[in-house]
Structure formats: C-alpha cells, structure tokens
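re: the backbone from monday

yeah here it is again, tokenized this time
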C-alpha cells in the first residue's frame, strides 16, 4: 500500500471512539484491491511464499498456512480486542478450544489452578477430568467463598479462572477481588466473559489478565457458527496461540467472516436484550408457578452491589426455578411456541433449555445442587423479539406446569 493511498486514514486505530463505532469500524478494514467496504473472506488454506520469507524476523507474522495465520481470522481477533480493550487476541475453533489452549499452555506439572465452582459444564469437565492428568492441581472455590478467594491460593497457584455472571444461576462475582488475589501470588486471572459480553463488562479494565469468549454466543449473535476467542496479556495469548497452532484449534475463515459480521451489531442487540431481560425478570417475579427468578444482582444484596460496580447492563440471560421440579420444567419446554427449546444462547432468537439435561448434564446431581442448579431450573436466552410476545409465551407455557 503506497503512503499516498487516499483511504489510508481509514485504517488508523481509534481507541477512544464509542463502543458501536469500534464494533462497526474495526472489523471493516477496507479492501485495497477492489475498495470493497466489507473485507473479503480469505477462504484459502495456503499462501504464495513471500520472496522475503528467509529474512522475516517473526514467522508468526507471515501468511504461510491458514492453520497458523489468515487475514480474516486476524481481523476477527482484532475486532474483538478493540471491544474488550485488549492489545492482542486470537480466535479459536470454539470457546472450549480457546479455554483448553489457555489452561493447558499456561500451566505445567506441579502448578495449581484456582477455579470458581460455578463454571460452564464443559469447563468443569476440563478441570475435573483432563487437567489433573497433566499433574496440575485444581482447587475449587465454592460460590459462597468467592470473596475469600485469596485464602484458596498457594505458592503453586499460576492461574485463577472464573465467570461472572455465572451459567446458569446468574450469580455475580467480584472480578476486581479475584484479580487482586491472583496478582498477590503472581498468578494470572482468566475470566470467561461469554454471558456478560464486552457491551456490559470489560474484565481487563477490572484487573483481569485474560478474557475468554465462546464467540458462538453473543459475539456471533445468530446461532450459525461455533467459535472461541482469547484476548489480553500478550505473552499468555501468544503461548496459547502456539498450542492452538499445534493442536489445530484454529477458526475457519468463513466462520471468522460470519463472526465479524455479527460483532458489528453486538451493541445494538445486547442493549435490547438487556432491556427485555430486565423487564421480564420483574414481570415474572409475580408468577406463582415460579419459585425464583435468577437474574444478575437478584441473588443477594452483595451480588447487586458487585453488579453495580462492574457491569454496565445485566445481560440477556435469565433462569427460572419452577415449582414442580423436572416434570414442570419439561412440561414448560414442551408448551413453548415462540421460544425455541435448544441449548446455546446469545442469538437473536430466544432459546430455552434445562441445564440438568444440557449445559450441566456432565455433573452429578449433588454437584449440580451444590451450585444451586435445581431440577426445575429453566435457562432462557432472551432474543430480540418483542418483549411482550416473549412474556406471553412464557406465561402461556407456565399454565401447563
Ligand atoms: C459460559 C460458556 N463458556 C464456554 C462455553 C463453551 O463454548 P463453545 O461451545 O463455543 O465451545 C460455553 C458454551 O455453552 C458457555 O456457555
């Protein structure tokens, strides 16, 4: 690109611009060959060897092969980094791909990871069944002990891992306190920010070192791809990237293109989902067939205080504990007409699932109850449909429970 290119100014980073401006513009680096407003998908497995290959200082910056580096996946990582306030990032084949590469590359035999008990089911499986085989110790922090996390660390702790709000009970945990506990022992804090999204919460600004996303969810926003991401601490992202390159946990360029498209509307979607979920959580607390509505801040005054301190909006997820347990929850799901009974979350369409049978089925009943996941719990991902249509669907289905 020549210095005199009249569009060169379009590529300058704009760190101080608002969220939606960054969402639309960072992922839209113009294509200089044809001037396309939407960058093309580099749907290629390989690239012509650059003539200067032998002189390249950093092979990681040379386009050789798409398992290692591809312009479309790079752009997706850059776009998310801009939204999370990170200097660097990488996209992966899935959220679990991102998390597994982070955990397995940052820890070695003899190290300890301190993890909140309240984590996505497969994250629990990774820590419970896989990580110990590498000689890594896992120390669990019960949700009620979250404020005492420092006491659960030791000289061997290298990584702290948490989510907030949690899946599916929507508890809120103090990211600043976890970051302090990590840094006191020279460890890193990794936060799964899937539920909050960068619209509502930026863990890096609260002291976390790494942010992980299941980009399958809100970031893509249309339930049409599987992807993951890791942004933050440069050394850690680079270490996880090397492992991902080796294991092949790389995102396909077409999925990266869809992800880029989804991220442009992230703010617009999530702000509407925040409003609708907040409205529904208030209206549904009046329903006599519901034992409890779970929404960030609703669990206790401490949760509410932390949510106010670290979240800009409360998100589009809410869970309902139905009177009548699993039988009632199954009947509720069967009677829904607008909301799709499906696992996953964060899309434009509302989805409902039973964590007992989907996201947390790998856990024993005792493990689930310890995390507050009762048999009658229904998790709802609020879409962008009209809020009173969603409310009417829930109220009609409740009559059959
Ligand atoms: C909070 C959370 N983290 C991680 C994951 C895993 O992401 P993926 O399914 O993209 O591997 C999920 C998936 O449901 C999730 O809900």
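seq for it, each position gets an aa:
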């Amino acid at each position: 690109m020549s210095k005199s290119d009249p569009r060169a100014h379009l590529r300058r980073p704009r760190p101080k611009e608002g969220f939606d401006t960054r969402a639309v513009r960072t992922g839209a680096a113009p294509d200089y060959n044809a001037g396309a407003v939407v960058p093309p998908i580099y749907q290629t497995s390989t690239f012509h060897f650059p003539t200067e290959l032998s002189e390249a200082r950093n092979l990681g910056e040379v386009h050789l092969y798409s398992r290692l580096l591809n312009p479309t996946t790079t752009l997706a990582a850059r776009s998310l980094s801009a939204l999370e306030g990170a200097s660097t990032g990488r996209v992966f084949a899935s959220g679990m791909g991102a998390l597994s590469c982070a955990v397995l590359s940052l820890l070695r035999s003899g190290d300890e990871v301190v993890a909140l008990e309240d984590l996505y089911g497969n994250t629990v499986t990774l820590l419970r069944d896989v990580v110990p085989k590498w000689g890594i110790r896992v120390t669990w922090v019960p949700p009620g002990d979250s404020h005492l996390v420092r006491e659960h660390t030791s000289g061997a702790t290298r990584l702290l891992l948490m989510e907030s709000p949690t899946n599916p009970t929507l508890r809120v945990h103090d990211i600043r306190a976890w970051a302090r506990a990590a840094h006191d022992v020279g460890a890193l804090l990794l936060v799964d920010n899937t539920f909050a999204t960068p619209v509502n919460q930026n863990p890096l600004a609260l002291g976390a070192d790494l942010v992980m996303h299941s980009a399958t969810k809100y970031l893509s926003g249309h339930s049409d791809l599987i992807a993951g991401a890791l942004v933050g601490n440069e050394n850690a992202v680079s270490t996880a990237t090397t492992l991902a390159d080796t294991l092949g946990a790389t995102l396909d360029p077409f999925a990266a293109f869809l992800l880029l498209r989804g991220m442009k509307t992230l703010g617009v979607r999530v702000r509407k989902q925040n409003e609708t979920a907040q409205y529904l959580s208030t209206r549904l607390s009046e329903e006599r067939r519901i034992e409890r509505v779970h929404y960030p801040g609703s669990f206790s005054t401490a949760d509410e205080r932390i949510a106010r301190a670290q979240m800009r909006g409360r998100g589009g997820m809410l869970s309902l504990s139905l009177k009548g347990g699993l039988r009632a929850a199954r009947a509720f799901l069967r009677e829904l007409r607008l909301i799709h009974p499906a696992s996953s979350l964060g899309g434009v369409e509302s989805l409902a699932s039973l964590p007992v049978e989907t996201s947390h089925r790998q856990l024993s009943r005792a493990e689930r109850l310890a995390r507050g996941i009762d048999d009658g719990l229904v998790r709802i991902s609020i879409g962008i449909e009209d809020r009173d249509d969603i409310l009417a669907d829930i109220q009609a289905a409740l009559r059959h429970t």
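The chain is about 35% helix and 15% strand. The CA atoms of residues 352 and 380 lie 4 Å apart.
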